[in-house]
């Protein structure tokens, strides 16, 4: 009994964590009476941002999945962030020629802790609430931790993603998905047109200019990562997509029209039936002075429906039972 009670207590303690895990459903977002579905933007995506500090390059890769946990995608090379996270950062300091990694670490930005503990604390607002000229959503996610390199103190971390309405974009343009990490690694290692065995600048080949990872054609854009006013660290992203438009109906319109047709069909049927009964009852009352069941049009037929159904059912049963019996004369 003690084992059962302890198991029950453990299961009960998981309920709040399970509830917090579903605080953000990207397919069912309601804001100010508008409904949004960001599920097409789900899946694991990556972007990176690089800064040149002296002879070193500080490269931070951001891996995110707004609709689910990262799972195995939270492990980037030898760095581990936590499979229950939704957004992770992987910071690496590389030499200028990308030949070696000086240091690196992983840090969770948003999502649940290990075994589903913690909370995402999602907050969704419409961009028009602050700027009438902008249409879209601002989604705030939290639950991460960032250890400051200098002080080694852990600070709260989160993300602010502005989904900006752009009818001409799906939101997936230019994104590097989890199954295409080799493209990101090739970009980080420096694609200078050589085979990787160049002897520096001795061959007279020019190096490609330094790239900070920005791409104007990409729908998802890195804005900043740094300390906010509340002493927490915030990753700011901008995501242009048609799914953030207030009146976007593609993919939902056909389903609503389909169900709308049958809904109107049922409503019309019941209205016609009600009109027939009301008019027939009024006619019987005024013409014949009918009362009770006699008010209903074809009342005798309606009263006989249960008996007619029983007779029909009895015939069906007798038909199936009679198929196995032998016909003709019986042997004497």
Automatic annotation (TrEMBL):
- What SUPFAM superfamilies does the annotation carry? Mannose 6-phosphate receptor domain
Entry keyword Transport: yes
* Bias-annotated ranges (Basic and acidic residues): 129-138, 204-217
User: Could you tell me the keywords of this UniProt record?
Assistant: Autophagy, Cytoplasmic vesicle, Disulfide bond, Golgi apparatus, Membrane, Mitochondrion, Protein transport, Signal, Transmembrane, Transmembrane helix, Transport
Q: Where in the cell is it found?
A: Cytoplasmic vesicle membrane; Golgi apparatus membrane; Mitochondrion membrane; Preautophagosomal structure membrane
Give the matching InterPro entries. Autophagy-rel_prot_27, Man6P_isomerase_rcpt-bd_dom_sf, MRH_dom
**Signal peptide extent:** 1-21
Gene3D superfamilies of this UniProt entry? Mannose-6-phosphate receptor binding domain
The residues that cross the membrane are 259-279
Q: Mention any Pfam family matching this sequence.
A: ATG27
* Chain intervals for the UniProt region annotation (Disordered): 129-153, 186-217
Q: What is this protein called?
A: Autophagy-related protein 27
| Species name | Aspergillus mulundensis
Q: What is the lineage of its organism?
A: Eukaryota, Fungi, Dikarya, Ascomycota, Pezizomycotina
């Amino acid at each position: 009994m003690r084992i059962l009670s302890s198991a029950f207590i453990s299961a009960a303690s998981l309920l709040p964590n399970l509830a917090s895990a579903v605080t953000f459903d990207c397919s069912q977002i309601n804001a100010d009476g508008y409904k949004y579905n960001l599920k097409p933007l789900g899946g694991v995506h990556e972007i990176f941002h690089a800064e040149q500090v002296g002879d070193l390059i500080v490269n931070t890769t951001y891996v995110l999945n707004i609709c689910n946990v990262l799972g195995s995608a939270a492990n980037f090379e030898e760095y581990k962030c936590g499979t229950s996270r939704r957004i992770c950062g992987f910071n690496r300091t590389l030499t200028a020629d990308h030949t070696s990694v000086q240091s690196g670490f992983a840090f969770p930005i948003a999502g649940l802790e290990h075994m589903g503990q913690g909370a995402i604390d999602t907050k969704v607002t419409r961009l028009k609430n602050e700027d009438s000229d902008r249409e879209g959503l601002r989604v705030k996610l939290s639950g991460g931790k960032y250890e400051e390199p200098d002080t080694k103190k852990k600070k709260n971390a989160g993300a602010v993603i502005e989904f900006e309405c752009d009818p001409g974009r799906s939101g997936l343009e230019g994104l590097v998905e989890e199954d295409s990490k080799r493209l990101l690694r090739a970009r980080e290692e420096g694609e200078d047109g050589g085979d990787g065995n160049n002897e520096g600048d001795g061959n007279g080949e020019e190096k490609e200019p330094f790239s900070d990872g920005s791409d104007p054609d990409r729908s998802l854009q890195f804005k900043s990562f740094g300390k906010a006013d509340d002493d927490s660290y915030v990753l700011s992203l901008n995501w242009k997509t048609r799914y953030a438009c207030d009146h976007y109906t593609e993919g939902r319109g056909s389903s609503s029209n389909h169900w709308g047709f049958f809904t109107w069909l049922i409503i019309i049927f019941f209205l016609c039936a009600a009109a027939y009964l009301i008019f027939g009852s009024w006619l019987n009352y005024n013409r014949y002075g009918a009362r009770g069941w006699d008010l209903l049009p074809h009342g005798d037929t309606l009263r006989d429906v249960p008996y007619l159904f029983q007779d029909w059912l009895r015939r069906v049963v007798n038909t199936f039972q009679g198929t196995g019996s032998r016909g003709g004369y019986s042997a004497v």
